[in-house]
## 1
Amino acid sequence: MSDQSRYLESSKLITSHYGEEYEHYYNSIVPPIFMNSLNVFDTLDDYYDFDRRDKHKYCYGRVQNPTTRILEDKIAALEHGVGALAFASGMAAATTAVMTACRAGSHVVCVRNAYGPLKDFLSGYCKEHMDMTVTFVAGEEIGDFENSVTDATDLIVLESPSSLVFSLQDIRAVSKIAREHQALVYIDNTFCTSIYQQPLDLGADIVMHTTSKYIGGHSDLIGGMLAVKDPELFQKLNLHRELMGGIAGPMEAWLMIRGLRTMEVRIAQHQQTAMAVAEFLENHPKVKCVHYPGLPSHPQYELMKRQQSGNTGLMSFEIHGTAEQAVKVAESLKIFKIGVSWGGFESLVFLPHLRLDDETCEKLGGGRNIIRIHCGLEGTDALISDLESALAQI
Ligand SMILES: *Cc1c(COP(=O)(O)O)cnc(C)c1O
């Protein structure tokens, strides 16, 4: 790690070379997968005195791994944090963050459009087993947070943009409120990736990524990531990851490193395609509205420009028509496959609200007919013509 600082100026240099120590791996341009559970020591003093922060000392695979460490160094650098931690899934990262930021009786403020299983964890497990309370807020207005934060609030959970209706939260303003109440701000940054948004710079405390999405990028792994700027918080999260056992495996970490190398060029293409698709949909007579923060018609476009430098391939839209007609559109698509995830090379379609009741739909801000699509890398013209044919079916 002689002179890595020069790589920090550019995200492209970070994803290509930062954190790698070619001289330790026979100058291989790609680091090995340390498919290894255990490292041994010459003496017991060596074992008992070893410093876990030393990049050349490893002990046991549930604590750290050299391949995983390269990935973590890259994400920490991209997010401008002091450290990052890789997890076996996005949810392992999210739950470890909540368990670290909160204690029995904690109050959490969470945006209503946050990832469903995380909301279930907060209002289910945390309530039942830790006597925690959670207030769900829309989150577009800063007043939503001002009015719900209390002295018992330890954590504010954001997802900006959210991944169903693409509403944003003002990260800087929310972080200011959180600081006044000594609460931490957690934000799911999966949609923007570390390339298009750096929430730690805006005041957030914990950035979470589902690496199953753009960082992996090829729909062949499950993983998560946390990045933080406070060294003390980093040490706590590190310890809790060890105790809860959620570290990513070396094979997945290696795949994430590989995915990361092309992420910036991939998301630029996802964005270009998504913009063209969003404009096509917005001008289509059968489409009522399109939710995509890259569109100037997005109600929070100005905020988007202030805190993001881009958007990626995910969006949703509502048709002039029933949920049954939306099903017809989804099932008529040929290239867009029906599926829940996103962030890979492939185009996907999903109806996230199809089985919800009207009241829940209204709270979440999208009808039962809302269609979410991920624009993959199959080509802009092909995707638009697929949508055009499917919309012609209704
Ligand atoms: C997929 C997803 C998650 C969960 O990640 P897993 O790796 O499936 O646990 C969390 N947040 C968002 C926004 C997601 O899309």
## 2
Amino acid sequence: MRIRTVSVHTGVAKDKSYNSVITPIYPSSTFYFDAIGKNKGYDYTRTANPTRTALEENIAALEGGVGCSATATGMAAVTTVMFLLKPGNHVITGDDIYGGSYRLFSSIFSGMGLSFSFVNMRDVAAIRAALRPETKMIWIETPSNPLLNITDIAAVTALAAERGILTVADNTFLSPYFQRPFELGVDVVVHSTTKYINGHSDIVGGAIVYRAKEIEERGRYLVNALGLAQAPYDAWLALRGVKTLAQRMEAHQENAMKVAEYLERHPRVKKVYYPGLKSHPQGELIRRQMKGFGGMLAFELDTSKIPLDRFFERTKLFALAESLGGVESLVEVPWQMSHASMGEAALKLSGITRETIRVSVGIEAWEDLVEDLDQALKG
Ligand SMILES: *Cc1c(COP(=O)(O)O)cnc(C)c1O
């Protein structure tokens, strides 16, 4: 079945009592046993819940994994995956990953016996040079946030496989509709379902998707033991949202392409980062690895011509807000907002400037979005 069918038909038809077409919300914290040792597969909602299971089946099917854990937030998913490691282990990841992941790695897990190398993930040689005997995980986030740099997933997983290193891909930006990391050899896929999977900016959530049964078992054990699972209500909303993933991703992409092309021609814009533009330096890899370009882009505003504040005061359809992947368009300044927790030195190293504006392009009419940007850029 194609993704458009899978997203609609997986994890539904769960209600044998009344035949509801839509999966019910099971808000029960506990489930009774028919006899000691005999229940219907659920005992306590931290461990498992039928609504959450339905969402997990759906996301696992979309990614092509053997199973999935739906977590309370994207960071809960990232946290769980880090607990697959042991003190002394070393992790290689990008110098331009999601700010919250960077903070978790550099200020929480670094103090708990793990060590990290933050490298330029575009450069496979740099990844190879960072390898140590104790390297046990390579954390991939591609396209990166917010500069849309691309990591060659197959090259990284080949490097890791020779050495028995676990590979993880944060697939939040493209969603399984535009990128399927398991097909490129990745072991674990992580999502902030807050973004495209749910798509409506009305919950926070995360997902860990497993390629093999052994890691799934360990992952489920950890989510339960750490207490990081998603609430049934939120899982239910994510399951509703994911059904239109394909249609939304197509709409996001079409709009992002129009906005990127418009911005690239604008005299007050110095540079545009979008994988769909011919100017993106990694075009060959993009076509090889991605099934689409997604709805995220970034650009450098020429603040000698228009002050940053002025631009944000004037936009009407693009709300100044963090987060991304919802049906509505958002703009933000990574330096001061989403990526501020990285600190100045790391920000500079990653190529983010004070003038970098990140855009999450929504599914509105692209003509309205371009008109809004046009009047805002007049300043
Ligand atoms: C938002 C995001 C996260 C964190 O997810 P939350 O749901 O905010 O906890 C992780 N990775 C990426 C790429 C994200 O965009």
## 3
Amino acid sequence: MWIRRKALVLLLAPVVLPILAACLQRAFFGLPSLPPTPFELSGAAAPSGFPAWLRVGHFVNFLFLVLLVRSGLQILMDHPRLYGNVHCTPGTEWLRLTPVEVPRDRVWTAKDDARHLSPWIGLPGYRHTVGIARHWHFLSALFWLGNGLIFVVLLFGTGQWRRLVPDSPRVLVEAWSVFVHYATLHLPREPNGFYRYNALQQLAYFAVVFVLAPLAIATGPSMSPALTNRFRWYPKLPGNRQIGRSLHFLNMCAFVAFLVVHVAMVAVTGLVRNMNHIVLGTDDAHPLGLYLGLGAIGLVVVLNALANWAAWRHPRAIQHVARAIVTPIMGFLLDRATPCAEFQRADVSPFLWPNGKMPTSEEWKGLAAENFRGYRLKVSGLVENPVELSLDDIRALGKKTQVTLHHCIQGWSGIAAWGGLPMAELLALVRPKPEAWVAVFYSFGEGLEGGAYYDSHSLANLRHPQALLAYEMNDEPLSALHGAPLRLRVENQLGFKMVKWIRAIEFVTSHKAFGEGEGGYNEDHEFFGELANI
Ligand SMILES: Nc1nc2c(c(=O)[nH]1)N[C@H]1C(S)=C(S)[C@@H](COP(=O)(O)O)O[C@H]1N2
Ligand SMILES: [Mo]
């Protein structure tokens, strides 16, 4: 792990400076006095105790948070670098979770850059596909979100919110006094948490529910190609897409830091009684709550082990569950957002990470050797007018240029100017038959496990104005590395959907009609989702 010094200082300062201030205050003025805590919150609607919904919601939240953190770390390790800029130029990262410095003397693809992760930490662990980690992440995110919404609604429906929401600025002063105690390793007299929290505790819980959780929810979609290429203002809220990604990561760190401190405080301030509060909803010193609570933590461990097992043994089943649950929601929320965001020439990235295996076939090498003069794009399948087009034919059919932001499933991004034939024009030429719903793009290049790379798009998606059959990148003919002679640009989707080194296009009835029936090479071999809007 490597971290830029400035980033380290920025991250440590908010932790170290307050502790330092607390130590100084203690040294010069002694421990601040705390107001005698009233036994209960006052007022008619003041809550006491923890109802069953709250205790169950607390547990469910813990379970899905653990799954989210573990699958999230696995996703991160697929591109173990965090940047403040959207170009992801090697050497500009502020955090690196890999010892590798990107070699400059040879091609180093983003896939080469992915790292292993212990299955004790990552879900699924080792170097499984980022596809399965994403399925776990998105499935967990939906259940976590649903649980959180129910929790917040009930919080306000029952008066329990009064435990969390500070009712006067005095709470800040009091919270600081409590902090000075903790930071100098003193335990102040605690109110009984069954009836009310101390001021710092209240602020911390408030921040987790009303700041950290919404931030996690808001920064997640800032990584979605469909959303950011439709609403350019969205990733600008944090600054850019990579800052959104970094914040999503730091948010996770904050959750984990809270978890560690929270559990430690539960233990130090009266473990047995506290466990009864949150497990059984009783306020006594019986050990049952502790035993049941430990059992519940054991259950979370077992469920996590099962998740890892399922990821390795039944990846296809997980892929299909995600397709049944996540895909419809994504289709409803994101697939309708037609991409339109454009950047300026000045925004073009100095370096665009390459991905995929260069074609090795004699056929492609021969074509490349004579500048693809002999190349013919074969368009066939369910069309009224099958064609074979030379590069000149394709150029003559029309050209559109767009400067867009590329999103790889691994997490990196980059801006480039793409020139090519709008897919809509090609569709108009070949006239798909009514039963044709999907176009499959076959590559000269091979996938990671051998065999030609291919992927597919719905015709609806290919009619988006930013769906191009690109033959230029940054005003130059497409380079061999980036997909010569032709590649796809479909800006509401992740990079893996944009087949490079295109050999042929075939129109078919559905994604079930080719390969192993999942929609593309990576969907078939790496269990990726077939709708790649996020
Ligand atoms: N034939 C082929 N096309 C491919 C791939 C591949 O492995 N083989 N990788 C995809 C992925 S994962 C990405 S992110 C983009 C990368 O495009 P670039 O190399 O131009 O940045 O290409 C896509 N097209
Ligand atoms: Mo990718």
